[in-house]
Each structure stands twice: as structure tokens, then as C-alpha cells.
Amino acid sequence: EGLFFPDTYLFGKGTRDIDLLRQARARMIRELDAAWAERHADLPLDDAYQALILASIVEKETALPSERARIAGVFSERLRMGMRLQTDPTVIYGLGPGFDGNLRRSDLERDGPYNTYTRAGLPPTPIALPGAGSLQAAVRPDERGDYYFVATGDPDGSHAFSRTLAEHQRAVARYLKRYRQQQTRR
To answer: Can you give the pTM of this predicted structure?
Structure first.
């Protein structure tokens, strides 16, 4: 995961799959190197590969370009403080084909290398193919002092950001209330 740049590639008839993969890999190296060269000086990442891992998490957390840097900011703040990332996409990735679409408390409590609820720091590898926007967000995070975020339940897929656990718990309660209302309407 994460080693190939996601994009539309043009190739001629008879192109070998390995040649296409090499092209996508070379593109990822170029994009990652360019992003890493523009990183914030105080980034809590040791190298470009860690930026790739963080970018892959950002890629899975939001489809909204406007939120990528802020979500990366939450993770940067957490990494700097030694907090666990506690991000569902890493747990889901670690479950692999056994994931049935329903993330359970037992999944969050089962330790494994991709479980960022039980382990501090980044997972060992990327969990997705991050695009240029996520790469940029990972190396230039929008740090506002937020340590938490949760889905709003809005159709646009946006998130509510919080600085404190109490604020976050209220945002989670709002989300759950909205979710339950939507479920009873169905």
C-alpha cells in the first residue's frame, strides 16, 4: 500500500503491468519527495516514509479537500503529545478481509500493528494510496490546537473538530443523536 501514486495513466497496447506499476511508483516518489521538501520545520515525523503513512491515513479519513490539512493537524498534535492516533481506518486496514463493514468495540480493543487505539505512533506502513492533496496535508498540517474530530453526519462528509475531550464528547453525542434519527426515518 501507498507505494503507487493514484492517477489516470495513459499507456499503449501491449504495455506490461510491471511497466505501469513502475510508472506509478516513480510518480509517487516524485510527489512524495516534492511534498517532503516543502514540509513544516517542526513536523513530528522523522522521514518522508512517515509522511506517506500519515498521508494515507488522511486520505482514508476524509474526502473533503478542505479538511485534509486540519485532520493532519489533529494527528500531528497527537503525535507531538505522545497521544494515540485512535483512527478507525487503521484498525479496519489491520482487520483485512475479515472486516464486515461494522467496526466493533472488540475490534478497537484487539491489539495489532495497525491498531492505533492500542498502540502509540504511526502504523508500520501506509493503509491506502494517498493523492497529492493528502501528501501536502501531511507535511503542511493545519494545527489549530485540535486533538479530536468526529463526523458531523452531514451529507457532505464533514467533521466537527474539538480541542478538549469534553467538547469532543458533546460532538460525538450530537453525531449519535443525528445518526439515530436518520435510522428511525428509514
So the answer is: 0.94
